[in-house]
C-alpha cells in the first residue's frame, strides 16, 4: 500500500467579518490545491470567535469544504468555549455552543481508520467541564482504543496535555486541566496511542511522553514572537504539519509556506488588555 499523506492544520481563526488571517489561509489553500493530501485534519480554533459569532463557524466550515479534500475537524476554545472553571475568555462551553459546532462542522469526537492507523478526534473543551458530554467522550475513547485490533493510534486534541511538567496541577488555559489530564494520558498510553497531535499555543514543538510522540502544530494565524523566542530560542512562524503514514510507521515534517506572513497580535492584546477576539471588524481581502 502506498504511503498516506495527512495534513494537520490548526488555529486558523477564520471569519468573514474579522479577516486578519485571510492571506495566510489563502496560502494554505493554494498549497492544498497544489498537492492535495489524502486527509486533512483541522485541529481546532477553526473560527475567529465561534462562541460569540456562529457565523464564524459557518464561514470556517465553508472554507474547509472549499479546499476540495477529505477533512475532519475537532473543536477549539475559539469554536465552542472553554471548560467553565478555566474560561479565560468568559465563554464557558455550553449546550448551545456545542450544538452550533455540530450544526456547522461535525461531531465533537470521532474515529477513522486510515491505512494501518486509527485516527481519533476529541474535544478538549469538554475535559474538566463536568458536562455529561465529558463522560460520554471518555467512554468513547475507551471503547475506540479497546477495539483498535492492534492498530497504532493517532489522537488529535486542541489543547496540549501539558507544557513542561505533567504533574503541574495549577489552573491553566494553555493545557488540559490537571484533573482530566491524567486519565487521558493513562488511556492513551495503555491503548496503543503512538502520536498525540495538538495545537492551541500557536507554535510548533515536539516532545515524548511514555513512549508517545506529542507534536504541536503551528497556527496559520497569529504567533507571539517574543514569548516563543524567549522560551524555545527560535522564531515562531505560521504553517502546518504534514504526516506520512507508511504501514505502522508515522513521520512528520513542519511546513512553513514562504507566502505565509508572520502576524503578531501581542501588541494589541497588551495595549488593550484583551485578546484577539476584541479586534475591530476587518473584511477579508
UniProtKB/TrEMBL annotation:
InterPro entries: Calcineurin-like_PHP, Metallo-depent_PP-like, STPP_CPPED1. Residues 5-204 form the Calcineurin-like phosphoesterase domain. This is Metallophosphoesterase. Pfam families: Metallophos. It comes from the Bacteria.
Amino acid at each position: 500500500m502506498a504511503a498516506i499523506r495527512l495534513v494537520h492544520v490548526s488555529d486558523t481563526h477564520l471569519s468573514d467579518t474579522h479577516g486578519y488571517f485571510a492571506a495566510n489561509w489563502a496560502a494554505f489553500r493554494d498549497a492544498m490545491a497544489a498537492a492535495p493530501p489524502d486527509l486533512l485534519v483541522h485541529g481546532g480554533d477553526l473560527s475567529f470567535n465561534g462562541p460569540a459569532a456562529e457565523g464564524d463557524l459557518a464561514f470556517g466550515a465553508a472554507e474547509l469544504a472549499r479546499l476540495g479534500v477529505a477533512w475532519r475537524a475537532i473543536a477549539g476554545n475559539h469554536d465552542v468555549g472553554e471548560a467553565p472553571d478555566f474560561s479565560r475568555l468568559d465563554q464557558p462551553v455550553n449546550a448551545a455552543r456545542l450544538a452550533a459546532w455540530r450544526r456547522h462542522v461535525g461531531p465533537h469526537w470521532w474515529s477513522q481508520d486510515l491505512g494501518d492507523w486509527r485516527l481519533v478526534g476529541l474535544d478538549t473543551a469538554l475535559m474538566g467541564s463536568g458536562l455529561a458530554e465529558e463522560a460520554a467522550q471518555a467512554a468513547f475513547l475507551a471503547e475506540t482504543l479497546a477495539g483498535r485490533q492492534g492498530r497504532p493510534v493517532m489522537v488529535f486534541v486542541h489543547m496540549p496535555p501539558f507544557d513542561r511538567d505533567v504533574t503541574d496541577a495549577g489552573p491553566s488555559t494553555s493545557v488540559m486541566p490537571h484533573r482530566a489530564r491524567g486519565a487521558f494520558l493513562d488511556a492513551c498510553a495503555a491503548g496503543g496511542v503512538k502520536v498525540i497531535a495538538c495545537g492551541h499555543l500557536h507554535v510548533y514543538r515536539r516532545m515524548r511522553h511514555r513512549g508517545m510522540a506529542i507534536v504541536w502544530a503551528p497556527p496559520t494565524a497569529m504567533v507571539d514572537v517574543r514569548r516563543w523566542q524567549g522560551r524555545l530560542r527560535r522564531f515562531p512562524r505560521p504553517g502546518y504539519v504534514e504526516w506520512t503514514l507508511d504501514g505502522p510507521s508515522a513521520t512528520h515534517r513542519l511546513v512553513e509556506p514562504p507566502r505565509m506572513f508572520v502576524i503578531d497580535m501581542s501588541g494589541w492584546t497588551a495595549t488593550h488588555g484583551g485578546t484577539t477576539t476584541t479586534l475591530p471588524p476587518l473584511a477579508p481581502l
